[in-house]
Please model this.
Amino acid sequence: MRLLLIILFCCSAITVAAQRPWILRTTMTSGPRPTVVATGSSVFVFDTNAMRTLDHGITWEPIAGVVGRMCGVSDFTAGLTILASYTELDRQIHMYYTISGSGWTQFTEFTSPTRPIALTASSNEWFVACENSNTVYVFGDTLGTVKLPTGAAPVELKYWDNSLYALDPAQGLFISSDNGKTWKLIPIKNPNTLHTSSMGIFVATEEGVFSVSQDPVKVTAVGIWPGRSTAPRIADVDSYINSLYAYSDDGAYQMYRLLGQNWEPIGYPLPGTEASRSVSVLAIDAGYAVLAHALRKGFTDSAGVYSYDLNDFTSVADDPAIAPYRAIVANDRLILGDAFSTVVEVEIWSTSGQQVFSIKPSQS
Model:
C-alpha cells in the first residue's frame, strides 16, 4: 500500500505544485450506479437508496420522509429544493420540496410508466424526464407534458440561460428556448453528461470534453491532453471559480483541471479496474469535489464516496528541489524540512484516500 505523509502546519503560503489523495468519506454508495448532485448547501448521493451530506462527506444522513426510490433533485426558486421519487408498484412519481432539507413535503404525484431519471427547474416551472421516453413532464400552474422528437430518450435535463437542455446519449444535445414546445438538435458523438455554468455549455464524451455554442452552432474540443495521442473517456465535467474540471474513467480514475490550454491531473488516481457510471458521478460544492466511486472489479474494498478539497494546497512531493518542504522518515524518526514550523498535526494516508495514522505534537 502506498502511503502519504501530510503535515498540517502554520507558516507562509507554499506555491509548490503537488498532488494529494482523495479522502474516502464513506464506503456506502447508495447502490450499484449512484448519482451525485449538489444543490443548495447539500450534496446528494442516490440510487436504490439515498443519502445527503452538509459537510462534503464528513457526515451523512438518509433522506427521510420520502416514499419510493429517489430519482432526482434540483434547486428551484426562493431557496426551495425539489425532489422526485418513484414507486414501482403503482407507477407513481412523487414530487417533494424542502427549504432546509431536514424535512420533505409532498406537493403532487402523478402516474408514469417509467421512473424519472432527470429533474431540473426554471424560476417558475420544473421539468422531469423519464427512462427510455421522449416525454418531459412540465409543472407550472398545472401539470402538462412536452415531447422531444420521436426516438429521443434524454438522460439529463438542464435549465440554463432561459433555455432547456436535454442530453440524449444516442444523438447529442437537444435545446429548447420555449420550454420544450420546439427543439433544436446539436449532434454530439457519444455524450456522457452535460454541464452548464457562466463559463458556457460543456459536454463530457467518450472522446474528451467539448464546448457547445448556439449562434452559430459549433461543437469544439476543449483543451489539450499532454502525453496522450487521443483524449480520454470523460465520465463527468464540472466547474468551480472559473476553472473547469473533468473526471476520467479511461484506464485510470483521474480528475483533471484545465490550466490554460492543458488538462493537468489533480489528485492521485483512485484504484480499481471497473466502476459503474451514472449520468453524474462528480459534483463540486463550495470548493469540494465529491465523487461516487462504485467499483465492480479490482480493489473493490476501495469503493465509496470520496471528497477532494480544491482549496487545499497542502504539498506532497519528493522533489529534491523543494527540500525545505520535504518530510522524510529515517532511523525510525520523522524529519521535517526547515520550512516547517509550528506543526499542528501529522497525518499518514494511503494513496487510495484512507487515513492510516494521525497525531498532534502535543500527543507525542
